[in-house]
Design goal:
The protein is of the alpha/beta class. Helix content is 39%, strand content 20%. It is built from 15 helices and 18 strands. Helix 14 links the parallel strand 17 and strand 18. Helix 6 crosses helix 7 and helix 9 crosses helix 15.
């Protein structure tokens, strides 16, 4: 590979150009097609701030080490300011070297003519060998640059470039290793095609797609192709967005989905570049959390909840406490995880609905997930009881089936149990009642959807998150419009998920805002820790679903906070305007009073002067 670097460096023209004025950390790279050296190509390389600041000081730069690199495949107008901006974002925000690949040629950047766009896009979509050659050329170029870790190069692409990512990934198969290898690819609103399957895909792909862009059936076809290629994949779909949802200046641009898809890409690249590993682990009792048991109250009494803060009870660990409460006269026992907090502090809260074997006690699976949410995100988290205190742990299969069937067949009862737990949270002093999220595992995922589809869903429930939830058959919608954001996280081979195209149409019919992600090879129950022969635990699906849920809650919490601050600012501005208006009125009144007072003063002093004058006159 050092020979490759020397070879590539020998024919690269590396120079500052006029674009450097607008992008001081971006370099222009002139290179050629690896299959045809007569084809001139031109891309732009963005350097992370730490590397860009080193300039040509090799002694200092050597200490930085080789960095991962991301090759950006452009959309159908070829390289322009959009791709360069994305390259800078990758360099500055993520710390990677980024390079904008040239597909059409150095003389065909920033195409404006619609007919030319169609012509060129059709040319490369219909000639995969030519398209892949241009991608290989960019990969070889960036691998030949100093400070690039040649074993950590990924590709991402937008629109036409997204198609290129998928085509290249299908062509990049196990057993065909070369200097053009990549560790992963990300497709943003890429056009879906009939990609040929020639072998086992060598690198994972992340597909980010608009719900109003690609047809659901086209995404199903892509899933089937990826399964044929034995690929590692994630497909995420976003409701209500069209082709080009990341393009800043496009009518289709959607800021929310742009941020969500960027987050998915960022975590994908971090794992691909070895900066993090997949898989979560069970929190340790008396190391990461402690348990406090509370005697149950009498029927009809308020739930007994405690608060850990201050004094001798102050600890850096999460505290899990039992919460005894009722749904009417039906006794329930949940578990509340409290992060270390200050007196009077309120936090956003996650309500966790258990799977079909019950709540499993204060040290069970769901409680451990609550501890993770409290420890990692600082959330208050509560495990809701659905079956009642008689069925805390359901071990035998017939009883599981009986109870799960009971609640699946009676959504009103299911929602009632969930509402009882929400009422506990609304009454708790540590809970920010305006920010509550509901997540559910397996049967709990069914309950989360039932709650979202209920007319009783509250405005302050910001999102529901079914995780490997039982969504087949489709749940009945009992409201005119679904209020919470719906984040569905499912396994790619989980029959309980049902048909995604039908689910999307069902959610659209309920006026829901949704996001659906499926993970390759993940079965039903993919988050349940275990290593036995019947364990469905999947490290990738577990980690990525957890990150997706946590990042959604963080984003919605920040959005809510910003909205509240904006309202406060508006109210403050209104008060100031009113005060200013009042002050102006007072000023006008003061001016009038001063005028009257001045006239009175002159009259008064004038009278004294006249009296003195008359006093000295002779009679």
């Amino acid at each position: 590979m050092p020979a490759l670097k020397n070879l590539v460096s020998s024919f690269l023209l590396l120079a500052w150009t006029g674009i450097a004025n607008a992008y001081p950390s971006v370099w222009q790279l002139n290179y050629t097609d690896v299959s045809d050296p007569d084809i001139a190509l031109m891309g732009y390389m963005a350097l992370p701030p730490t590397l860009a600041a080193e300039d040509d000081s090799t002694d200092d730069s050597a200490s930085i080490g080789d960095l991962p690199a991301v090759v950006i495949l452009p959309d159908w107008d070829n390289v322009n300011d959009y791709e360069i901006t994305r390259a800078k974002m990758i360099a500055e925000e993520l710390g990677y070297i980024a390079f904008t690949a040239d597909i059409y040629g150095a003389e065909m950047h920033d195409i404006k003519d619609f007919a030319v766009k169609v012509e060129q896009a059709t040319k490369y979509r219909s000639d995969p060998e030519l398209f892949n050659s241009r991608i290989k050329s960019a990969i070889a170029t960036i691998k030949g640059m100093p400070f690039v870790d040649v074993n950590k190069v990924a590709i991402i692409g937008y629109c036409l470039g997204g198609s290129g990512v998928l085509g290249y990934s299908f062509d990049h198969i196990v057993g065909n290793s070369s200097i053009y290898d990549i560790v992963g690819g990300v497709s943003f609103h890429g056009g879906l095609m009939d990609f040929p399957v020639t072998g086992e895909m060598a690198s994972p792909v992340l597909v980010l797609s608009g719900g109003n862009d690609d047809a659901g059936t086209a995404v199903e076809d892509l899933e089937n192709k990826l399964k044929q290629a034995n690929a590692t994949w994630q497909i995420t779909r976003y409701s209500g967005v069209y082709h080009g949802f990341t393009k800043f200046d496009a009518d289709a641009y959607n800021e929310w989905v742009d941020k969500r898809s960027w987050m998915e890409m960022s975590s994908f690249l971090a794992e691909r570049f070895g900066e993090m590993e997949y898989g979560t682990s069970e929190p340790e009792l008396d190391v990461e959390y402690i348990v406090e048991l509370i005697d149950p109250p009498e029927v009809g009494a308020d739930a007994q909840v405690a608060r850990m803060s201050g004094g001798s009870e102050q600890t850096s660990m999460v505290m899990v406490e039992t919460v005894s409460y009722y749904d009417d006269a039906f006794a329930l026992e949940g578990y509340l995880a409290l992060p270390p907090m200050e007196d009077g502090e309120k936090r956003p809260t996650l309500l966790i609905l258990p799977d079909w074997d019950g709540v499993n006690g204060p040290m069970g699976y769901e409680s451990e997930r609550a501890v993770m949410a409290a420890k990692e995100g600082g959330y208050v988290a509560m495990v809701a009881d659905i079956y009642g205190t008689e069925y805390t742990n359901v071990d035998d299969m017939p009883t599981r089936i009986e109870l799960a069937t009971k609640y699946r067949s009676d959504p009103a009862l299911f929602v009632s149990r969930i509402r009882a737990a929400i009422d506990v949270l609304l009454a708790h002093e540590a809970v920010d009642s305006s920010l509550i999220f509901v997540a559910g595992y397996c049967l709990g995922g069914t309950g989360a959807i039932d709650y979202a589809f209920s007319s009783k869903a509250l405005e302050n429930i910001k999102a529901v998150i079914p995780i490997h939830g039982g969504l087949d058959p489709l749940r009945a919608v009992r409201t005119d419009a679904v209020k919470p954001y719906v984040l569905v996280l499912s396994g790619g081979v989980d029959d309980a998920h049902g048909n995604t195209t039908e689910l999307e149409a069902h959610l659209d019919g309920a006026s829901a805002t949704w996001e659906i992600t499926r993970y390759s090879n993940a079965q039903h129950g993919f988050t349940k820790w275990g290593t036995g022969p019947f364990s469905a635990y999947d490290t990738m699906a577990d980690s990525r679903s957890w990150w997706s849920m946590m990042s959604l809650m963080d984003a919605l919490s920040e959005e809510h906070k910003a909205s509240m601050e904006g309202e406060e600012m508006e109210e403050h501005d209104h008060d100031e305007e009113h005060s200013h208006s009042h002050d102006e009125s007072n000023d006008e009144m003061s001016d009038e009073n001063m005028s009257e007072s001045s006239a009175y003063g002159l009259s008064f002093f004038g009278s004294i002067a006249m009296a003195a004058f008359f006093a000295v006159l002779p009679y």
